[in-house]
Amino acid sequence: MVKKKRKQKTTVFVSLEGKREKVFLNFLEQLYKPNENNIHINFSDVTGGHSNSILARAIKSSSNYDKVYAIFDEVKPLSEEIRSSLSKVWYSDEFSSNTKDKDLQQEYNSANRNPIIIVSNPCSIDGFLITLFNKKLPKEVNEKNCKNSFSGMVGSKFNEETELKFYKTNLTKELLENQKNNFTLQLILSIFKK
Q1: CB neighbour class for 66 (10 Å; exposed up to 12, middle 13-18, buried from 19)
Q2: Rounded CA Rg of the chain
Q3: What are the residues facing 39 on neighbouring strands?
Q4: What residues of the chain score a pLDDT lower than 70?
Q5: Residues 6 or more apart in contact with residue 74 via CB below 8 angstroms
Q6: What local confidence, expressed as pLDDT, does residue 5 receive?
Q7: Is 84 in contact with 53 (CB distance < 8 Å)?
Q8: What is the pLDDT of residue 1?
Q9: What pLDDT shows up at residue 194?
Q10: How many angstroms separate the CA atoms of 151 and 157, rounded?
Q11: N or C end of the chain, less CB within 10 A?
């Protein structure tokens, strides 16, 4: 009698910034159903903080999971200390001081070593979502204006149920999969795939 092979379990940890990121990722988790492919995702219990604390949580968890992600915005740049820690876990030379946070992953981590960093840009998750829906960014791109613009698209200030309904109504797997040139989106989708 031949034994059935057990599917290899993939463990994923995501260190993230805020509630809006978590709602968006929860929507993607419902859409992609990673558990059916034996992918088990843990989102950080702690939200908030700045890029340094989000990335520090991810670096600390790097050896405990198969895949580790840090999702943060580009409002406040990473400190030199965190950049140095990141270069060590990526087995990379020190990063050029001219390299923006949003470009670190693409320029220094093509092998996708843990942690994989996803920098929401322009300015925040709100700016990323505005561009994802092919809408115009505010004239002055900053965190406050992007939040207000995205809230206008959704129809209210942040509300988990309203935003989840907005995603379910306006995003399909096909629409997401067809955005192959959106580097940030492709990294986000890799959370839910082997």
Answers
A1: middle
A2: 17
A3: 10
A4: 1-6
A5: 51, 100, 101, 102, 119, 120, 121, 122, 123, 124
A6: 63
A7: no
A8: 58
A9: 84
A10: 5
A11: N
